[in-house]
Design brief:
291 residues, alpha+beta, Beta-Lactamase, six-stranded antiparallel beta sheet, 14% strand
Length: 291
């Protein structure tokens, strides 16, 4: 009963009621209400005008306050994003020094940078972030001649952190689809454990991956967001970042959220990739990473 009364006496309801009474009075369809020999219609007419104007002023003020709150929230979000970027830059500088001093290799450098993004943007053990660099053959005739070299990978779930495959063909998989179209997003793949054959058929038909390759994936993801980062100043520095999750429709994997993350870090990641590739690791890491 309390909820019903709350809706009846809602400010917007009162506002509409006053407008309705005012409209009926103006149209002469409102019944003539009398108190003894005196008509109350003029009094009701004046009261409805006062009530309508009062509610209009109040609602306009409420709307203005809501817009101010939204602006404050947007500004707070921008402040938080700016803080994330500053932390990212600070960590990058620290890890670059470790890389130069041969304390970490390039793979560990990128794993640490991706871990920073994962932490700041609330990725869970259900998600993973990977970063690839595109390498093009000098005599290429199409993207089938290109390859992706994985530079780093991070998930809070250690089972998903394996990156034993170093090179991937550019015309297959989610990364291949993103490479062709500059981005690729899907969030409704079936669950592998419940129906392995259905999952494998979709991956085969959509991404040109054979059944054996799908079976060997250590993460059978249901959501993917893959984005190409193009370097306008250096066409040899194209990068692909892949976000994935074993869950469908998770909040952190919403397309608009992933796009904001890419926009925030794109410039820094492109610059770091050039720096780290130029500054090759010392000899004790060279053989380990195939340099």
């Amino acid at each position: 009963m309390g909820n019903v009364l709350k809706h009846i006496f809602n400010k917007k309801t009162i506002h509409l009621f006053a407008l309705l009474v005012f409209t009926l009075l103006c149209s002469n369809k409102f019944p003539n209400i009398q108190c003894g020999s005196h008509s109350l219609n003029n009094l009701i007419f004046i009261a409805s005008i006062i009530l309508y104007i009062s509610m209009e002023i109040y609602l306009q003020k409420e709307y203005y306050n809501i817009q101010n709150y939204k602006t404050e929230i947007d500004n707070d979000k921008k402040t938080i994003e700016s803080l994330y970027l500053k932390i990212f830059k600070y960590k990058a500088q620290s890890y670059k020094e470790s890389f130069k001093n041969s304390q970490i290799d390039s793979n560990e450098f990128w794993c640490k940078m991706l871990a920073r993004i994962s932490k700041d943007h609330n990725f869970s053990p259900n998600e993973r972030i990977s970063i690839y660099r595109v390498y093009r053959s000098a005599n290429r005739t199409g993207i089938s001649d290109d390859v992706f070299n994985i530079k780093g990978r991070f998930s809070k779930n250690s089972d998903f952190n394996d990156s034993s495959r170093k090179v991937y063909p550019a015309n297959v998989g989610v990364i291949g689809e993103a490479y062709k179209n500059e981005s690729h997003y899907i969030n409704n793949l079936p669950e592998y454990r419940k129906n392995p054959m259905k999952y494998k058929r979709i991956i085969r038909d959509k991404y040109r991956m054979d059944f054996e390759l799908v079976d060997n994936l250590n993460m059978k993801s249901r959501s993917y967001g893959a984005f190409v980062l193009k370097d306008e100043d250096d066409t040899t520095n194209d990068i692909i970042i892949v976000f994935e999750s074993i869950l469908p429709n998770s909040a952190v994997m919403k397309k608009e959220n992933l796009e904001k993350i890419i926009d925030l870090y794109k410039k820094e990641i492109l610059n770091l990739m050039k720096e780290i590739d130029i500054e090759k690791p010392a000899l004790n890491f060279a053989e380990e990473r195939g340099y």
